[in-house]
Amino acid sequence: MLQLPIAPMAVGDYHGFPRQDFLLEGRLGVVISPHTARPGMPWIWRAEFLGAFDTVDVAMLHAGFHLAYYQVSDMYGCPASIALMKGFYDFLTEQVGLARRTVLFGFSRGGLYAVNFAAQFPEAICALYLDAPVLDIRSWPGGLMQGEGAPAEYAQCLACYGLDADTIGNFHSNPLDKLPILRQAHIPIALVAGDADPVVPHTENAQLLADDYRAHGEKLLYILKPGCAHHPHSLEDPTPVVEFLLSCMA
Hints:
The protein has 250 residues and is of the alpha/beta class. Helices cover 29% and strands 21% of the residues. The protein has helices spanning 55-62, 79-96, 110-120, 151-161, 179-184, 206-215, 239-247; strands spanning 10-14, 17-24, 27-32, 43-46, 66-70, 102-107, 125-131, 189-194, 220-225.
């Protein structure tokens, strides 16, 4: 089990792997260790929803990756949340000894955190795994296009970004706006979505990313699940995503 420079507040089990929970700057941090770590101490990082639809997470643990999580929930990938994530990243890489580059997982609203962090700190990213990702806050939680929207979350999201109903139209810092940065850094992306998602429609989110990456010849795995809504996330057989992510480590 990985030795932390701070005392964990809890030690437990995650699918048979040792889990350590701790507080960093007053927020929950989690590190789950593989039974045998790969050389170089690679790791994956769940931006949100640790433990949900986690077939890929577990497969990567079996492959020798550490798994990390830091709770910055209800901040929708806003600049303040990215600054908190950078502090967690610095802690794990500088004090714990994990690799300088991570594979960041963005499930649903976690896509906001994953892409925004990668765009600000591309040197920290080996690859992204985005699953039914939110890539435009106007789509979700806004519901300003075809998606259902979530009014309470939208009000919270606007407050996080210092926006309102009048200024959202001039907001150009969504993850989709930052794809040129990801392309310039040649960050590979594994992308999974359902083609019947009424909450985070792929036509407003995942499909736009896929079209952009394909048009520019960037490394992309895109799996569009026919008839699938927002849930279930991920794949019952994680092999395609795991093999793609491992290929990014070469």
